């Protein structure tokens, strides 16, 4: 009799759990569909992590408008600036291996002078690049190191701001293309291969910086929105293979070809696994990518104003009452967001391949609204 009662109770709990799960899913998907309609979203992939497990993934809308192909969880996106955290993670591995230090002089590592001409005695360090506190800007471009190399660009001084390195913040893509180059110089592996062998493969992720190494049929077409014409246009440049440049590749200098600053291609689901590693301070299941010390250092903000650490930012105004850590991305019309709460162990990945691109409180409206929708459905008590 007791066994029968226990079995009945088990079935009841199972049924109740299933009903709750269905209710959460229905609530999330209804909310997301409304967000997509209000913001002219073409496609949207999402993932929710709780206590180290991915508890929900789904893709909405279209992978490609012209062929009317539905977006799926298997599709991969160029995730833009979230890519910076992969470069920073790789640097932390090399720091742990004592192959370099965050206080190292960037000039000595790169082989050409990287000095703010107004403050020539102040060393610009790896840590300054990783935290956007180097006083370097993108005014001369960032797709080649020639922009900041005094031997290549007569206007190299324009790459520097008027303040002393280490004293202020300006977000700068060139910082991370230099970081990627130093990964290559120190490790002896081509940048994209280093990240694959030391971050992606150990986590079992299908992703990469090199377009030609991936199945192009899985790429979600990215669309730029023109608000004046109320029109979307495909942006094939997001997945330009750069094949000719790679054939003429110069190790330790051509690295920006792969865009360490924004060129990672990955699905929302695999990005959620990567995020979980950072949420769990460098580990995923039995795999250690970086040490707990390195993970905490990446997540520690260096100023309250910007909330930026080492390619991971801290924000208090994404979800009310919650401290979230992560990064956003935007390029070619794509918007992406990866944010987690390490204390309560929940997190979200949201990626869209095209929307109207409005902002609310400093973040893309679709990213902000979708994260809060997912939080309300799956995490909030």
Structural commentary:
The chain is α+β, with helices and mostly antiparallel strands and 381 residues long. The protein is built from ten helices and 15 strands. A seven-stranded antiparallel beta sheet has the order 3-2-1-13-12-11-10, sandwiched between helices. A hairpin with a 4-residue loop joins strand 2 and strand 3. Helix 2 (83-96) runs parallel beside helix 5 (173-187) and helix 2 (83-96) crosses helix 6. 44% of the residues are buried. Residues 11-19 have low confidence and may be disordered.
Topology as a string of helices (H) and strands (E): HEEEEHHHHHEEHEHEEHEEEEEEH
Could you tell me the mean pLDDT? 95
What summary fits the major beta sheet?
A: 7 strands, antiparallel
Distance between the termini: 36 Å
Percent range of helical residues: 25-40%
**Number of helical stretches of at least 4 residues:** 10
Count every beta strand, where a strand is a DSSP E run of 2 or more residues: 15
How would the global form be characterised?
globular
Rg of Cα set? 22 Å
- What structural class is derived from the secondary structure elements? alpha+beta
Q: Order of strands in the sheet with the most strands?
A: 3-2-1-13-12-11-10
Uncertain runs with pLDDT below 50, 5 residues or more? 11-19
Beta fraction of the residues? 15-25%
